UniProtKB/TrEMBL annotation:
Key words of the record: Aminotransferase, Pyridoxal phosphate, Transferase
InterPro entries to which the protein is assigned, alphabetical: Aminotrans_3, Aminotrans_3_PPA_site, PyrdxlP-dep_Trfase, PyrdxlP-dep_Trfase_major, PyrdxlP-dep_Trfase_small
Family the entry assigns: Belongs to the class-III pyridoxal-phosphate-dependent aminotransferase family.
Cofactor(s), by name: pyridoxal 5'-phosphate
Domain of life: Bacteria
Molecular function terms, GO-annotated: pyridoxal phosphate binding; transaminase activity
One Pfam family linked to the record: Aminotran_3
Protein name per its UniProtKB record: Aspartate aminotransferase family protein
Species this chain originates from: Cytobacillus horneckiae
Length: 460
C-alpha cells in the first residue's frame, strides 16, 4: 500500500492549537518536558484541555473533540456524569468530610460488590492507583511463596516502577528470540537487579511459556500479565486455561493485571470472559469513576498475610522491644479506601450494570463503520480488541496476537491518520487505543465516521 501525504496535516494541527503550543512552552519552564507524566506528552506538543462534557473535550483554543482517550479508559461514564457529581455531593454533605482516616462503611459496601463481581476475590485491599495495586500484588506473592523472582510477558505494562519497566516496548532486534525473549531495561535509573529478577515470557505462546516457567519454577513467585495485552490484544482461551494449569502445577501464583480490562471487557473483567480464576487480581481506572484508585483482590490465604495483629504495627514504637511487624506484610496508605472516591466508584458500577450492553453495542457499531470505510479505500486494517476497547492497526496480517506481531503495523501512517483526525475533531493521543463510554451514542458515532472519511480523503 502506498499512501501519499504531506506536512499540511501537521501544519493544520499547529494552526488549530496555537494556545496549546504557547502553554507547552510555558509549562517547560516549570516541569521537565512540560508534563507531569511522560504518557501525557506527544510530538510536536500535547494539547492542553480546559473542559470536558459528556463525550466531548474542549481545548485551550476552544476546539471541540469527541473524546476516545477518556483518560486512558478511566472515564467509562464520560466527563462530568450527573450521577457521579451527585454521588460526590451527597457523600460530602452527608458525611461532612472528604476523608476520615479511619475505617468507614463504604469500604465494606464496595468490597461486597467487587467480591460478588469477581469470583476469584475472597478479600480485597484498596490502594491509590493501578501501579500501587500491582506493587502490592507482587509483594503478596513474594511473601506467600517465599520466592523472589517474577515473570512478566513481553509488551505488557504493569506500572512505572523498576521491576515492571522491563521489556514493555523493546526494540525487536535487541529482544532475543521470539520464543525466549530477553529481559531489557526500558528506563534510566533502573537497578540491573530487577533485570536479573524479572523473567520475560512470550505472550500467546503456551509451549514456550511453559518451558521457561518449568525451568525457573523454584525461583518464581508469580506470573503477572495483562490478560488482554495493552487492553486490546486478546489471548486465546487455550493459552489462558493452559497458563492457569501450568502455574498451578508448578506452584507459581497467577496475577491478572485488570487495571485496563476490569469493567471494560465486562463487569467481571477478562477473567469472567475467559472463565479463569487467577490467584490475585489488580483493578484501577474505571472503578474509580475518574478518581485515583487501585484494588488488589485474591484468595483468602494470600490476602490474609497483610492482616494486622497485635505488635505488628511498624509505626507502633511502644512495642519496639517485642515487635512482630516483620511477621506481617506491610501495606498502608492515608488515602486507601477514600470515601469520596468509593462513592464515585459505587455509582459507576451501578450505572454500568444498567448500560453495559449499550457501550458494547456502540463499540461494535463504530468498529464496523471504520472497517467499511477502510475497505472502500482499499486500506488493510484491523480494529483489534474485545469489549469496549479497541485499537486501529494498519496491517495486512491476518491476526495480531502479541507484541512482535504488532510491530509489523504501519505506525507512521497511523500517526498521520491520528493527526488528521485531531484536525477533524476526534481526540485520542496519537497511536493510542480507543475507549468507549455510556455517553457515546449514535450522533457521536456518525460524526466520528464522517471525520474518518474526511481524514482518509486527505491522506489518500
Amino acid at each position: 500500500m502506498k499512501v501519499r501525504y504531506s506536512d499540511e496535516i501537521t501544519d493544520g494541527f499547529k494552526e488549530k492549537t496555537n494556545i496549546s503550543y504557547e502553554l507547552s512552552k510555558e509549562a517547560e519552564k516549570y516541569m521537565p518536558g512540560g508534563v507531569t507524566a511522560n504518557i501525557k506528552y506527544f510530538d510536536p506538543y500535547p494539547i492542553f484541555m480546559k473542559k470536558g462534557d459528556g463525550a466531548y473535550l474542549y481545548d485551550a483554543d476552544d476546539n471541540k473533540y469527541i473524546d476516545y482517550l477518556l483518560s486512558y479508559g478511566s472515564l467509562m461514564l464520560g466527563h462530568g456524569h450527573p450521577e457521579i457529581i451527585n454521588a460526590l455531593e451527597t457523600q460530602m454533605k452527608e458525611h461532612g468530610t472528604v476523608l476520615f482516616g479511619t475505617p468507614h462503611q463504604l469500604e465494606i459496601e464496595m468490597a461486597k460488590k467487587l467480591v460478588n463481581l469477581y469470583p476469584s476475590m475472597d478479600k480485597i485491599r484498596y490502594t491509590n492507583s493501578g501501579t500501587e495495586a500491582t506493587l502490592l500484588a507482587i509483594r503478596l506473592s513474594y511473601a506467600y511463596t517465599g520466592k523472589h523472582k517474577l515473570a512478566k510477558f513481553e509488551g505488557h505494562y504493569h506500572g512505572g516502577y523498576d521491576q515492571m519497566l522491563i521489556s514493555v516496548n523493546p526494540p525487536v532486534h535487541e529482544a532475543g528470540p521470539e520464543s525466549t525473549p530477553l529481559s531489557l531495561i526500558e528506563s534510566k535509573g533502573v537497578d540491573p537487579y530487577h533485570q536479573e529478577h524479572t523473567i520475560t515470557l512470550p505472550f500467546n505462546n503456551l509451549e514456550a511459556t511453559a518451558e521457561i516457567l518449568t525451568k525457573h519454577q523454584h525461583e518464581l513467585a508469580a506470573v503477572i500479565l495483562e490478560p488482554v495485552q495493552s487492553g486490546y490484544i486478546p489471548t486465546s482461551e487455550q493459552f489462558m486455561t493452559g497458563l492457569r494449569e501450568i502455574t498451578q502445577q508448578l506452584g507459581i501464583l497467577l496475577i491478572f493485571d485488570e487495571v485496563k480490562t476490569g469493567f471494560r471487557i465486562g463487569l467481571g473483567g477478562a477473567q469472567s470472559f475467559y472463565s479463569v480464576n487467577p490467584d490475585l487480581t489488580t483493578l484501577g481506572k474505571v472503578v474509580g469513576g475518574g478518581f485515583p484508585i487501585g484494588i488488589v483482590g485474591g484468595k483468602e490465604d494470600i490476602m490474609m498475610i497483610s492482616a494486622p495483629s497485635a505488635f505488628s504495627d511498624v509505626f507502633d514504637n511502644s512495642h519496639s522491644s517485642q515487635s512482630a511487624a516483620k511477621e506481617v506484610l506491610f501495606h498502608s496508605g492515608t488515602y486507601n479506601g477514600h470515601p469520596t472516591i468509593l462513592a464515585a466508584g459505587m455509582t459507576t458500577i451501578a450505572v454500568l450494570e444498567q448500560e453495559m450492553h449499550h457501550v458494547m453495542g456502540k463499540t461494535a457499531a463504530l468498529k464496523k463503520g471504520i472497517h467499511e470505510l477502510f475497505s472502500r479505500k482499499g486500506i488493510p486494517l484491523q480494529t483489534v480488541g474485545i469489549g469496549s476497547i479497541f485499537n486501529i492497526v494498519i496491517t495486512d496480517q491476518e491476526r495480531i496476537s502479541n507484541y512482535r506481531e504488532l510491530q509489523t503495523a504501519d505506525f507512521a501512517w497511523r500517526k498521520k491518520l491520528d493527526f488528521a483526525l485531531l484536525n477533524e475533531g476526534i481526540y485520542t493521543k496519537p497511536l493510542n487505543r480507543c475507549s468507549m463510554s455510556t455517553v457515546h451514542g449514535d450522533k457521536e458515532i456518525a460524526l466520528t465516521l464522517e471525520a474518518f472519511e474526511a481524514a482518509l480523503n486527505k491522506l489518500t
